Amino acid sequence: MAFVIPRLQQAGPAVFWRKVTKRFLLIFGIGLFLNWSPFIKWQDGELVFKHWVDPNNPESGIRILGVLQRIAIAYFFASIIAFFAKPRMAFYICTIILLAYWAILYIANPADPYSMEGFVGTGMDRVLLGIAHIYKGEGVPFDPEGLLSTLPAIVQVVFGYFAGQYIQQKGKNYEMLANLLVAGVIMSLAGLMWGTSFPINKKIWTSSYVLYTTGLGLLTIGVMIYLIEFRQVRGWWSSFFDAFGKNPLFIFVLSGFLPRVVGLFRWQDGLNEKGEPMYTNAFSWFYEHICDPVSADPRNGSLLYAVLMITFYWLLAWWLDRKKIYIKV
Fold it and tell me: 46: which strand partners?
């Protein structure tokens, strides 16, 4: 945004709306595609189509929201704030959103505002999206990328825009670096302090979480700028992150899409206690027979599997970079 918004401000509102809306729809659509893919699933020993709402279970269906959908929504509204509001007004808007979010949660349910069931956004998602289209991996219908909790996420995108603009305008100098690090410390401490009354909670993306993680982000960026730009400390470690940074969206989507497709190609792997067949696929077999046996502690096998998967996707990202293939929206 820090690079795009100034150019769009010069181009005018018509170009702004066209480009931002197009990007919003593309990212949201890719996220919805990822949730629905690969459009078929195993059910009672046969492949069936994944319906928008399961005809056999009205409370089961395709999840509407997700990580990419939240990014799309937050990007869209943050872009509007950055484009039409001057920096001071944008800061005031962000402050109001964070405070209003806190007030909404507490007023709606003073007794239990921060749990998955007590969170007012849970009820909103169930009404507006429908239980069939809400994430159920938490044990209850609760969407960690729900509609209401996207409000503070919008603020976090605006804060990122502020940081990018500041770095661009100040240029590479120690004053910029010092101010960036000081801002990171202040925001992190402010988030921790606010967290004593408004708990730092990623699941519902609390305002204190926004301040705390934004502060940590500023500190991380500051340290990276110091090491790479000021001290010229570069090598294999920085190149490792370069490869992922060139095609981040494609790698993210592939890491979600590929296991689902691979999961369709399964084979029988023994029987359960009831004598029913159990099935496995390439990824599951690799974990169970290669990674898990390396240690009696299952955490070590899980860590090995994660490292190998990251290495696999990094090699793909590295190959795409070598071929100058960059997939963007």
Answer: 43
Task: Find the helix or strand (DSSP H, E) in which 301 lies.
Answer: helix 298-322
Residues 87 and 82: their CA atoms lie apart, in Å, by 7
| Structure-token pair, residue 181 | 């690090």
Which backbone phi and psi does 198 adopt, to 5 degrees? -125, 90
Q: Is 267 exposed, middle or buried (0-12, 13-18, 19+ CB in 10 A)?
A: exposed
Q: Determine the Cα–Cα distance for residues 250 and 255; give it in Å rounded to an integer.
A: 9
Per-residue pLDDT of the chain (329 residues; tens, 9 = 90+): 656 777 878 889 999 999 999 999 999 999 999 999 999 999 888 999 999 999 989 999 999 999 999 999 999 999 999 999 999 999 999 999 999 999 999 999 999 999 999 999 999 999 999 999 999 998 889 999 999 999 999 999 999 999 999 999 999 999 999 999 999 999 999 999 999 999 999 999 999 999 999 999 999 999 999 999 999 888 878 888 889 999 999 999 999 999 999 999 999 988 888 888 889 999 999 999 999 999 999 999 999 999 999 999 999 999 999 999 999 88
Q: For the chain, give every domain's residue range.
A: 4-233, 245-322
Alpha carbons 30 and 250: distance in angstroms, whole number: 10
For residue 46, the tally of other CB atoms under 10 A from its CB is 8
Cα 11 to Cα 9: distance, rounded to the nearest angstrom: 5
**pTM score, whole prediction:** 0.93
The token duo for 82 is 């950055």
Q: Which amino acid is at 185?
A: V
